[in-house]
Amino acid sequence: MDAKSHGRLYLGGMTHPAALPHGPLEEIFPDTFFVTGTSRPNFMGADWQFSRNMTVLRRGDSLTLVNTVRLDEAGLAALDALGRVTQVVRLGAFHGMDDAFYLARTGARYFSLAGAPPQGDRAPDALLSPDAEPPVPDARVFLFETSKVPEALLWLPVDDGVLISCDSLQNWVDADGFFDAPSAERMRAFGFIRPANVGPGWRSAAQPEAADFRRILELPFRHLLPAHGVPLLGDARAQLAETFAREFGV
After folding, report:
1. By C-alpha distance, which of 128, 187, 138 is closest to 161?
2. 136 neighbors 57 (Cβ within 8 angstroms)
3. pTM of the model
4. What is the DSSP letter of 61?
5. pLDDT tens digits, residue range 196-222?
6. pLDDT digits (tens, 9 = 90+) for 70-125
7. Cα–Cα distance for residue pair 169/64, rounded to 1 Å
8. Sequence spans of domains, the chain
9. Which fold has domain 4-248?
């Protein structure tokens, strides 16, 4: 088999989705990096194209990848310049398509969710849980307890508190340059393009209850780094509280 075939990359005895267009790695907080890339799924009988994000946490020379996005060769070189990938973290049942690539490339430990559908043949080394070892020592894991599909948040004690989310909490203030026009139009109509949002697709599948959102507001945080949308910095808790009050009455 060729190293690259049909838009997929062959590595470590497996084929992996090839890199799609993405932006640069940007340092949002000290040792906390963020990169926006592309997703091209097919669902509801249609092809879609929209953006998705990866967060990279550096502790010493160790890197933790949260919500993985496959980077191109230049992006991988920039990632390697930051340190060595030692953890890969999957926060949502509907993400993880690029986890296997990074696991094969780096031999990192894999943190995932109980009940999440497998991505490739790699079982998790650890399951995310508030009572278990977190992926980075200073983090806390928040699990949605009422969701019908597994979903977690990662909390960090950075600058009065940072939440990293997957599909549950989003912040698409507009359709960015990684959308195609048909997807942007459909996703505006479906309510995806809204700031401080509860992801409509996730909400439909997960059917979460108000109790989970009440628990989120018990966490001390000011910032949100979502898998979809731009970082929500400074007043994330206040904006999300307005959303939760409107949508869930909490």
Report:
1. 138
2. yes
3. 0.93
4. T
5. 999 999 999 999 999 999 999 999 999
6. 999 999 999 999 999 999 999 999 998 999 999 999 999 999 999 998 877 788 99
7. 20
8. 4-248
9. Metallo-beta-lactamase; Chain A (3.60.15)
